[in-house]
Amino acid sequence: MNLEQDVNITFLYGNDQDLTSNTLGYIDPLPNITFRQPITTQQIYIRARKAGHLIVGAQSQEVNITQGDFMRIEIAESSTLNVFIQIIGWIYFLAWSISFYPQIILNFKRKSVIGLNFDFLALNILGHFCYSVFNVGLYSSPEVQLEYFHLHPHGVIPVLLNDVVFGCHAVIACLITIFQCLFFERGAQRVSYITRVIMCILGLFLLISTVVSLSTHNKLQTLTLLYFYSYVKLLITCIKYIPQVYFNYRRKSTVGWSIGNILLDFTGGAFSLLQMFMLAYNYNDWTSIFGSPTKFGLGILSIFFDIIFIVQHYFLYKEPLYHIVQSAEEDNSQ
Questions:
Q1: In what order do the strands lie in the sheet with 52-59?
Q2: pLDDT 10s digits, 47-77
Q3: Residues 197, 258: one domain?
Q4: pTM for the full model?
Q5: Which structural domain, as residue segments, surrounds residue 99?
Q6: In a domain, 3, yes or no
Q7: Helix ranges, the chain (H)
Q8: Contact 247, 117 (CB under 8 A)
Q9: For residue 217, how many C-alpha atoms fall within 13 Å in the half-sphere facing its CB?
Q10: Could you tell me if 157 and 250 lie in one domain?
Q11: Nearest to 97 by CA among 162, 183, 38, 37
């Protein structure tokens, strides 16, 4: 930089939006530095005190330093543990990514989708579609990212490329399964009236929100719209397994419902939770789990349903037999 006068810099510290002179015990306080002509660079040495995350900003009376000028310091207990955390991340990413294929392969081998509940499939594709819209929008749109940084000046975009790839891949896998339902034997199975009503309500909510956001951008920001899509995804995650559990119960069988899908989903969920705890320990950041319980709670809920499916498949309905279950509409017409 071109200096016309000496520039004195002092440092500020914090975890999120508010920066103060308190280092919060994470590092030794950094000394003030002064830039004098012709020196335009300075070296500073940082000594860590404890594990955690710290934002380091700066201020000066001579030059304008914005909130966007900051350093993010991450202090880990163990670099070796970080390697294991990354390995675990790839394990659950791969497990979740391939968890769609056992059901697709089973349908293809049987030339039948009897046993796969259509309510689950309908809710699943809507959920993954909303998840993909959120990820693609936040990852690829500079406008949305500016809105995000306006709310979280020192934040990090919470979407990575693998999140985008996973969401889009999940939608494609669900579409393949839907096409199988159109061409393979399906018996009397159909999407239930209750699920159609739920999907219509959610779809109408998203449609109205999207139209309002596109036509009156100042009243409903794009980032807020994307959060609406993410909330729909969270709601669907809470309820989407219930129809399949009840369907297996009525049939007294899991024939046609791939246990491979469940085992891979269970593996992904377990390793995801393990990574969350390892990250919390390594960076002394337990508020990432218990301070924002949504992700943690959904992970526990997903594993809970996986355990129910495992019990149904391996203990309750071990025999490869099943009862034919009519749709609710057919039951009411008789």
A1: 33-35, 7-14, 52-59, 70-75
A2: 999 999 899 999 998 888 887 789 999 999 9
A3: yes
A4: 0.89
A5: 79-326
A6: no
A7: 79-98, 101-110, 118-140, 142-151, 161-183, 193-215, 222-239, 242-251, 259-282, 287-290, 293-311, 328-333
A8: yes
A9: 6
A10: yes
A11: 162
